[in-house]
Amino acid sequence: MAQLSNHPDDAMMSTTDVAGLARLTLDGQARITEANTQAKIWFPELVPGQSQLCDAWLVGQDLQIIDRNYRPIHLPSLVQGELAEPYLGLAGARDTQWVQWHHHRQGRKTILTLVDVSPLMNELFTMQDSFEEASIRDYATGLYNRRYAMERLEQMYLHAKRYHNPFTIALVDVDHFKRINDTFGYAFGDNVIEQLAGVLVRSLRETDICARYAGEEFMVLMPETETQEAILSLDRLRQQVSELKWTNMQRPVTVSSGVISWQPNKSVEQLMFLADQRLSTAKKAGRNQVCGDLV
Ligand SMILES: Nc1nc2c(ncn2[C@@H]2O[C@H](COP(=O)(O)OP(=O)(O)OP(=O)(O)O)[C@@H](O)[C@H]2O)c(=O)[nH]1
């Protein structure tokens, strides 16, 4: 099996027939003078002796040659020897093919060696996506985390201010959760939180943003939703939670909610304060209920 050398000069000499490596030789005007088998497979329209590589061709291929610092490289600077050697870069675009390229000058000739690194790049993108997703989620419940919910709230608030689209905020808190923990253990309490997170997501609209706000407290952002409508949804959620059956625990788990809708004269902080106030009112009024402003 062919061994790939790490040294660029060695690589140049051994690349022509190594499977998967394409090699193009260009003259001073970026005309192709030689192409190996792989290069002909990848770029069948480039005919040695006739074709010229140009920036427009790269654009047509949805390729852009970039350097290590993601700066675009223009082909003229490549063939005119303006770039330091050896040069290693990537060409491609997200969700297309990625090619790692190396250029090397031999007198007036420029030799371009290209290798397909799409599987590696796609794996990197997938990892990047999952890191991004993890950074906005609460690990235990899979709900959005508080930071993300607050960011979305700020966006909804600005949108509402500009376009007067209504939205509603709800804070949902488990009743007497300390008692559940104390009686059945912390692990059971954790399980209750996880189950409730699932009910929350299933019970509310897909467009609602459900987040874990704090320990046993959830936050729901309901876009395009007025108070009355939100109260009905949260009361349905309350009912569903109270009907859940728990092993070892006879008493139902219940939740209380505080609801506030966007008002033009209130800041985000004031809205959050009012939602919390209404949650306290629901708790003081006996729990297992929804308290919303009906102004
Ligand atoms: N199992 C578990 N418990 C948690 C978690 N986060 C917070 N808690 C507990 O939740 C309990 C909340 O207690 P309190 O704030 O007194 O509220 P409560 O007992 O639910 O009473 P009310 O809200 O007034 O109905 C505390 O004992 C916390 O330790 C968690 O992630 N898992």
From TrEMBL:
GO-annotated biological processes: cell adhesion involved in single-species biofilm formation; negative regulation of bacterial-type flagellum-dependent cell motility
Catalytic activity: 2 GTP = 3',3'-c-di-GMP + 2 diphosphate
Gene3D superfamilies (UniProt xref): 3.30.70.270
Gene Ontology CC terms, in alphabetical order: plasma membrane
Domain GGDEF as annotated: residue spans: 165-295
Uppermost EC category: transferase
One family name in Pfam for this protein: GGDEF
EC numbers for this chain: 2.7.7.65
Required cofactor names: Mg(2+)
InterPro entries hit by this protein: Diguanylate_Cyclase (IPR050469), GGDEF_dom (IPR000160), Nucleotide_cyclase (IPR029787), Rev_trsase/Diguanyl_cyclase (IPR043128)
Organism domain of life: Bacteria
A GO molecular function held by the record: diguanylate cyclase activity
PANTHER family tied to this protein: DIGUANYLATE CYCLASE DGCM-RELATED, REGULATORY COMPONENTS OF SENSORY TRANSDUCTION SYSTEM
Protein name according to UniProt: diguanylate cyclase
Species in which this protein is naturally found: Reinekea blandensis MED297
Organism taxonomic ancestry: Bacteria, Pseudomonadati, Pseudomonadota, Gammaproteobacteria, Oceanospirillales
